[in-house]
Amino acid sequence: MTLFQIDFEPIGKRVEADQSLSLLAVAQQAGIALAAVCGGVGVCGACKVRLMAGELSPATAEEQDVFSAAEQAQGWRLACRAFPLSDLKIEIPPESLTATQRLQLEGVSQAVDVAPVVSVRPLRLTPPSLTDLRADWDRLMDAFPLVKANPQNDLAVIAQFSTRMREQDWAGQLVLSAENAVIGTLSPAARPYGLAVDIGTTKMAIFLVDLSTGKAVARMGAMNPQIAYGEDVVARIAYANQGEADRLALQRRVVETLNMAITQLCAEVQIKAAQVVDLVVVGNTAMHHLFAGLPVRQLGQAPYVAAATQSLSFPARSVGLDCAPGARVYLPPNIAGYVGADHVAMLLASQIHRLPGNSLALDIGTNTEISLSRDGKLLSCSCASGPAFEGAHIQAGMRAVPGAIERAQFFDGEWHISTVDGLAPVGICGSGILDVVAQLLESGQVDAAGRFTAATQHRVDHPQGGTIELVSAEQSGTGKPILVTRGDIREIQLAKAAIRSGVEVLLSESGISADVLDRFLVAGAFGTYLDLDSAIGIGMFPRIPRDRYRQIGNAAGIGAQMMLVSEPSRREAEAILDRVAYIELTTVADYMDIYVDAIIFNRTE
Amino acid sequence: MTLFQIDFEPIGKRVEADQSLSLLAVAQQAGIALAAVCGGVGVCGACKVRLMAGELSPATAEEQDVFSAAEQAQGWRLACRAFPLSDLKIEIPPESLTATQRLQLEGVSQAVDVAPVVSVRPLRLTPPSLTDLRADWDRLMDAFPLVKANPQNDLAVIAQFSTRMREQDWAGQLVLSAENAVIGTLSPAARPYGLAVDIGTTKMAIFLVDLSTGKAVARMGAMNPQIAYGEDVVARIAYANQGEADRLALQRRVVETLNMAITQLCAEVQIKAAQVVDLVVVGNTAMHHLFAGLPVRQLGQAPYVAAATQSLSFPARSVGLDCAPGARVYLPPNIAGYVGADHVAMLLASQIHRLPGNSLALDIGTNTEISLSRDGKLLSCSCASGPAFEGAHIQAGMRAVPGAIERAQFFDGEWHISTVDGLAPVGICGSGILDVVAQLLESGQVDAAGRFTAATQHRVDHPQGGTIELVSAEQSGTGKPILVTRGDIREIQLAKAAIRSGVEVLLSESGISADVLDRFLVAGAFGTYLDLDSAIGIGMFPRIPRDRYRQIGNAAGIGAQMMLVSEPSRREAEAILDRVAYIELTTVADYMDIYVDAIIFNRTE
């Protein structure tokens, strides 16, 4: 049979297949984990893809049920029902990928001109001799009068310079900062690289970027090692408050992880750590402070102020980072004690401060940071959404690791689930519990107050009261049934109320209603793998047209890369701080009313 | 009997005494260790003092022998022969003090206007509240618009600021650098202090200075702990070259000693280490490099160049110094690989670059640095004088510690000695062996070639050949005789030849002879306790009128204090670098001739 070339975008994977296999099967064979809640029988709609070029088998009856005429016209298909008839270009939307694959996707990247902070110049010096006894560093100054005199030049640079010049026979390249301070030297053909880092409370994302091209050439995810000292920000602050040694231990652990990442990423692309000449690090205010060695005590007690919000820059060596001797770490500004530099990076990547009309962008985590832009004027707040979406406080909750239920649908009287990596289910992650609650509501098994109804199916006895069995003991990977309790639903209610009330306060302070929002951007790991229909279904997000929503991936990581590659992007991030008004929710007069209102599931949309 | 008030200068000690005790006895009772080689019988002339005010008993016959009529007219007396007849003011010249007391003297201090690099401003901020959520650091910036934004402000400062402001109820004082970067905060009444440090290869001198008055309020000496890793600069460099960890270990040991000194000196004047807001450190180029973390490999191999000669400044915290969080260490420039920042500090203190006429200044050590000023134009060189004057390579040699013979005279066929602290003799220190050789020469017991003659007395058998007994076993503190060998004399010959040939090269390159030198300044520990007549006697120093010589004490330490107290002094030190031409002796065509000529004792003066 004829073999067709099939390009899956935006993953960028090309495979060959004939017309005997569905796109779902082709994708699965190629290692692309498309979601398939119903098992590929055309019912759940989870495997939707869009035909961008080429010809597929005609749309089936199931597909005509799932997609509107407009959607069909745009090329939307179910991968499990569509078979190739020619070479194809297929777009896989993030929501059709499983969590682990989705998180490997780049965020939505913004084109920035490559204009890094550092510059590279060729270097050739006359070696010292008995008739030319100038000191090594003076020799450099004589050759490069533009090189700034002390104290900008780090001693570590001067120290390494003498050694490197003798190793390199007094030739190579000089790496200079924007202020013409020396960052280091490179051998004649070596290229300069930079590191962009997003330190999350749970996970870290680390990108090695070629500063000549502006492209990330290697990346890795790592657990934040501070997790051993406390699961969340509050516990981390409490640990740090025990004493300076404990606070600095948290800093050291992150630095160790970054050094390990530098080693691995550099090995991957066969460069030396000394070629890493610039770094940008983002994180929430607590992660930012702990990494920078700033105290966090005042973050943990009213009125919860940051030690510093303006952008910071310090020598990478001063915290023990192993890279070019004069490399500096740039930290973009924080907005407030609980709206950090990662949110600024996300705003930069989203560009909502530059877009006309009304745009909302949020990043869901234990704290959810939300910003609303009205023609570029920004209002921000932070709400304590809690760890439910990270699987904590949920009876069978877990992180989005292999075996976690990440999607759930209820139809034909049964629960249909899919798990991360397709393993036998062992628990429920954030997107899974969100789906379950949305489906319970939609099917009338839970009422507006969050109580199970008479219509509830698969009830089981449980010491905590109202409980359903999502997965039976036989189907479970643990040998025990996977349950959802009334307490779990309560947790989701509180979390979604926190987020929704934050959105509502920003709207109300701006004097607009949700329906005039032109766009609603959802960033971050959970924000990228949650199901938008479920989030709207439980009232966490407002009921506005679906095409105004956009899941933008690790936008904080993208923003960090933009600032690494482009000095103007740093200035833009700093200017965002001037455009932002921060709202402390607890000082909003009717905040508690809004919050309590948001707890009820059937609030007026 | 009538009690008189007797002031001893420049020690500044006042005691009461009647006319029954000689000035020597009065001084000894007061704990002032005057040299007394002959035991106070008016023969050796070592206890000479000068009457500045008041009346003494008439000059004795012995004194009329020792002093010229002009000297008698100037008030010179022997302390052992003079008795008080009124209240007195007595000057004790440094050469009449024993080594340990002499080293406690200040160097010759230069008056500088108090104009430190740091400034102090009162600080009072509104505490944060729910209606004023500005970050701590932003709050400061708002109150002090002149405070420079990052990256000048060290993160350690920002880190400490949050904590200190809460401890101090948001009030106190702000310490700013010349560039208005924040160095730290002080409580409302606290004064700012600084630390001036002279890191010698063997000893360190550390001065705590009140920056409000410019006065040193506490000082201490300490051994350089690097001595455990190598006695001299060459051994130290070899150790550092083993690897970066070893090099940094040498740095760490010095930093540990400085931290210990900061703790002790601050306790002594009851201030906190955080009140130390500025530091100036001087040392020879190797000590400078090791302290600053610069490589020394290139200092140890031809052509012996410094990694950097220009002045440096770096955060004190970056090397682990425990003081104000933003305090910086200032290092004045080096001149060359073997003429370091300590020599620049000594030149600054001597002010020879500002004096009219011809001035020579030198600091004797294992390396002896020499500068010649002709109306402010400077020529400098360094000569490898070796460790003989530190007691090394001398049969019975030792440092100038208690029990070391520091003075020796030969008369009446016998050796007369005095020891540090007057203990039973256990060995000979640099000034002692210098005296012995000078006396052997003067008494004809050693010839111009350095060989013992037929006139040599107290000869003893020794495996190394020609040897004399300086102290018998019965008089020795060790129970064994203290000997001086022909090898010892050879060591002194080589050392004095190195120094003298350096002086001669500078004179010759300047086209002048020694007799037109207007002043000859001798700095440093050994330079201060050596006997000038002996140094001239063996030909180490040229035979020019004694009143052109001046022993100026720890001038490098004084220079460091000047730069700590006065920013213009730093600029002056940097300007000295522009006035200096460095001469590498090995490139001087007839250097070896000059050197060999200087080895002979009876060179033409």
Give a quick precis of the structure.
Chain A is an alpha/beta fold and 605 residues long.
List the main descriptive attributes of the protein structure presented here.
605 residues, six-stranded mixed sheet, homodimer, Nucleotidyltransferase, domain 5, Ubiquitin-like (UB roll), 23% strand, alpha/beta
Protein described:
Chain A has 605 residues and is an alpha/beta fold. The first copy, chain A, folds into 5 domains: 4-97, Beta-grasp domain (Ubiquitin-like (UB roll), Roll), CATH 3.10.20.30; 119-186, Ubiquitin-like (UB roll); 194-331, Nucleotidyltransferase, domain 5, CATH 3.30.420.480; 343-386 and 493-599, Nucleotidyltransferase, domain 5, CATH 3.30.420; 388-485, no CATH class. A 6-stranded mixed sheet of chain A has the order 11-10-9-12-14-13, sandwiched between helices. In chain A, strands 24-23-15-16-17-25 form a 6-stranded mixed sheet, sandwiched between helices. A 5-stranded mixed sheet of chain A has the order 2-1-5-3-4. In chain A, helix 12 (486-510) packs across helix 17 (591-599). The first copy, chain A, starts with a strand and ends in a 6-residue tail after the last helix. The model of chain A has no long low-confidence stretch (mean pLDDT 91). Chains A and B meet through helix 5, helix 6 and strand 13 of A and helix 5, helix 6 and strand 13 of B.
Give the helix/strand layout.
The structure is a homodimer of 605-residue chains.
Chain A: E1 4-9, E2 13-17, H1 23-29, E3 48-53, H2 61-66, H3 69-74, E4 76-78, E5 88-91, H4 99-104, E6 119-124, H5 136-143, H6 155-167, E7 171-176, E8 182-186, E9 193-199, E10 203-210, E11 215-223, H7 233-240, H8 244-268, E12 276-283, H9 285-292, E13 312-315, E14 328-331, H10 341-350, E15 358-363, E16 367-374, E17 377-384, E18 404-411, E19 414-419, E20 427-428, H11 430-442, E21 467-471, E22 482-485, H12 486-510, E23 519-523, H13 525-529, H14 532-537, E24 549-551, H15 555-565, H16 567-579, E25 580-582, H17 591-599
Parallel strand pairs in A: 1-5, 9-12, 12-14, 15-23, 17-25, 18-20, 23-24
Antiparallel strand pairs in A: 1-2, 3-4, 3-5, 6-7, 7-8, 9-10, 10-11, 13-14, 15-16, 16-17, 18-19, 21-22
Helix pairs in contact in A: 7-8, 10-15, 10-16, 12-17, 15-16
